[in-house]
Design brief:
The complex is a heterodimer of chains A (220) and B (310).
Chain A (H helix, E strand, L loop, with lengths): L7 E5 L5 H10 L3 E5 L2 H4 L4 E4 L4 H11 L2 H9 L4 E4 L1 H6 E5 L11 E6 L10 E5 L9 E5 L4 E5 L4 E5 L9 E6 L2 E4 L10 H22 L8
Chain B lengths: L18 E2 L2 H11 L3 E5 L2 H10 L3 E4 L4 H7 L8 H10 L4 E6 L3 H10 L3 E5 L20 E5 L2 H10 L3 E4 L9 H17 L4 H11 L3 H10 L5 E3 L7 H9 L5 E3 L1 H4 L4 H13 L4 H8 L26
Helix pairs in contact in B: 2-4, 2-12, 7-9, 8-9, 10-12, 12-13
Amino acid sequence: MPEARVPVIGVLALQGDVREHLAAARALGATALTVRRPQELAGVDGVVLPGGESTTIGKLAARSGVLEPLRAAIAGGLPAYGSCAGMILLADRLLGAPPDQVTVGGLDVTVRRNAFGRQVDSFESEVALEGLPGGPVHAVFIRAPWVEQAGPGVQVLGRVVGGEADGRIVAVRQGNLVATSFHPELTGDRRVHALFVDIVRRHLDQKAGVSAGYERGTEP
Amino acid sequence: MAEHSATDPQTPGTPAATGTGTEGVKRGMAEQLKGGVIMDVVTPEQAKIAEDAGAVAVMALERVPADIRAQGGIARMSDPDMVQGIIDAVSIPVMAKARIGHFVEAQVLQSLGVDYIDESEVLTPADEAHHIAKSEFTVPFVCGATELGEALRRIAEGAAMIRSKGEAGTGNVVEAVRHMRAIRAGIRRLGTLDETELFVAAKELRAPYPLVAEVARLGKLPVVLFTAGGIATPADAAMMMQLGAEGVFVGSGIFKSGNPAQRAAAIVQATTFFDDPAVIAKVSRGLGEAMVGINVATLPDGERYATRGW
């Protein structure tokens, strides 16, 4: 087997909790870089859309020129993970948003912004995630969105248990795209990021397999 | 830089809290504002302009600090109708100011559903010895500080975010620079001390030892650190970011200027690209008049807001 290349994770660094996502990716052995400009997107194997204010990040992405290349890259299969504001930015459809809100899109879901309420309604709870070993994750929800409706190609990974929002979808995956309503970057539990880095590694392997063809595995 | 998380992974054995109003959601909320600009607004229309410009949050208040200075009198919490109107006008978080020590103003603001309360020296203090006991609230608080000890005392009281005080309503960045440098230098100094010396440092800073030790270990405050007080231009915002601020409050600087919408967008852009002089130059062109401003050195002591707070 050839030595696998260290995946390069880009964190969209226009605004939000960028540092925590960089730290999570680095803790998992990935190289992590900030992305603010179109050319900085070129070298990444996967992109994280962080928590933050989604309207602000969308506007800055449009003004900095990184929005269209990001859309194209994700449409072309670039793995992406969005937490909270990142989930909103990845969604194809929004509720509770200004009509002109800019998003990246790619994820066939309808996401409701600030679905759980205002900051006084922000909360922490346990959420069990499909296919994630080690028990439920401790989830921090901050003015969080939820997925109101998910398209047929979207796998629901997790739902809220108990309370008024019982059963609401808060974690999804669609191919190389993952999104959570909550902020695993704030807790030190790296399992959601590990899931994403694993997707990035598999994507890299596939690309290497396609380009190397039958020669795959013969390199030192 | 040491990593910090809202639910500190470096405190093993501490069970993670659940429910609302936790330290995790209070501090975590401020983490989401990082790299952003929070703008003072006095009407729903201004709030919309701020949101359209890319503000991460707005601060609802009755008069911007420059007007409080000019008009004098007692500055208080805003009319609930005004706060509500701003909450209804925008989808971004809404902050509002309570007077130092005025815990009932804070209770009222929490009941209105504001997302963050600024226990602010810009308003006339309601208590000359005590700040609000902030841990008791579900809503998080931001407080001003001029140096590290003051920041840590506010955090001990429950503040989930700290900002430099600067000198609000002057359009003069000099005090914000002084306070940011003092806070950051204080943090760096703690990193050079051994355990024995940290006990003395806690005494000198008039701050709880566990917080002092935590700052020494993390190399940063355990909460997000913004800057405020006198930021009027894109270059001001970028300089404060280069000095270590994690985000920017702009008070009078936007709506006391010639072209608020354009200036607001320019300050947002300069905060994100704070390390890129070409971007700062580009957004600084043709902004029109900045607020006139005041030379802080000419302010009589009684008119310096930064001296309020204990």
